[in-house]
Amino acid sequence: MGEEILKKINNNNYKIVNELIDLIIEENIKSEEELKEYQDNLFKIDGKLMNHEEEIDYCVKTILSTPASEGLFFLDMQEVINFKENVNSLSIEEKNKRVIIIYSLMNLDMMLPYDAYKLIMSNNL
Q1: What is d(CA 68, CA 63) in angstroms, rounded to the nearest whole number?
Q2: Among residues 106, 20, 36, which one has the least CA distance to residue 71?
Q3: Of 13, 30, 74, 107, which one has the fewest beta carbons inside 10 Å?
Q4: pLDDT in tens, 31-81
């Protein structure tokens, strides 16, 4: 899986690609299905899985409640602030993509690795 992702690396996604490869290696994930299962397990509460929109909403709430770090570059800080101010006007697809980017910018643990993988492989991240 890691080699496939590396073929899609570019200036805009290199940090997310590296985080994803680290996760795949660390968790010994061998397939797309295992990556999906890993992501699903992150959002399992009392044996019940959240649906995809609930997963994204959970991540948005985390971003909104986490102060932007002073260690962020100015442009990254602006990206986080802009997201927080405009999150309610974004489509679910755009929220998903932006959540992945913001989590990476804020150095938060990747919560949507399967989604990140799918976006990278389709050249949308």
Answers
A1: 9
A2: 106
A3: 74
A4: 999 999 999 999 998 889 999 999 999 999 999 998 876 678 888 889 998
